[in-house]
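Hi everyone, sorry if this is the wrong subforum. Our group has a chain we'd like a structural model of before ordering constructs, and none of us has done structure prediction before. Sequence below.
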Amino acid sequence: MKHNMQILQEAAQKNGPLCIGLDTSPDYIPHSVLKNYSSAQDAVFAYNKEIISRAKKTQSACCFKIQIAYYEAMGLSGMEVYAKTLKEVKDAGFIRISDVKRGDIAATAKAYADAHFSGDFESDIITINPYMGFDSLEPFLSYCKNGKGIFVLLRTSNPGMEDIENQLLQNGKTVLSRVGEKLNSLSDDFKNFYPEQTCSPVGAVVGCTQENDALTLRQNHKSVFFLIPGYGAQGGDAKIAARLLQEAGGTVNSSRGILCAWKKSPECLKKSENDNLTLEDIGDAAEKAMLNAKQELLKAKEQI
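Answer:
Right subforum, don't worry. Here is the predicted structure as tokens:
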């Protein structure tokens, strides 16, 4: 049995490394589209379906990352949209990464694992925050033995990462390097559990906004598959992302760059001003953006 991280690694090799982030806010949807739906939540789901269908049609991405906060912000009906979006991504044949960043201990950690690896909100891979201690990972690791995967926060893409991740411990190492050591250890452990697979079900979140850190982390974690945020709207460069795609590889997330691609199209902006921009127009802009992102990332990777 292949675990989901292995399936994702192979999908990235086949379809390119782009991960499309469905961090979908009703604020991204113009009035001309919103007015066609009974609620903002229904409009968000239609928006998501359009993006997913374009990615399926063009085979321009290897996976989708669904950020749960945007759906929680819409209340109970928003969580229904979250669940339906997960199903839509699965039905389209893509790996689902749920960006939930859970991190707690004991029974609470197990409840989080059960919530996101089974039931209404079941996903394939989820993001995990290890900064309450490595014991907080245990319930999620149990699911990894049954095919699920986790991306553990390692080097995030926000400026505030300096506040904790780069702080020195008494032994002179950074907090980030300590988490990295644990990741390598877990990766080695899973090599014995999945001896015929080329990556561990335990991956790492590594932002692509700082080139020096990115290069060091790729060299220090050669067998770990990366989830790479920061590309596009957050200022990350394709060349930095491409460095992180070496060795075990990774998937590079773009959210607003695709969801809001219509806002960079003069034609779409004019239609929006005239209140006649359609969901198909938005899909056309998103499709172009995802294809451009895929080609940019592949070209940058080839040039290394």
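For your construct planning: The mean pLDDT is 93. Residues 279-302 form the longest helix (24 residues).
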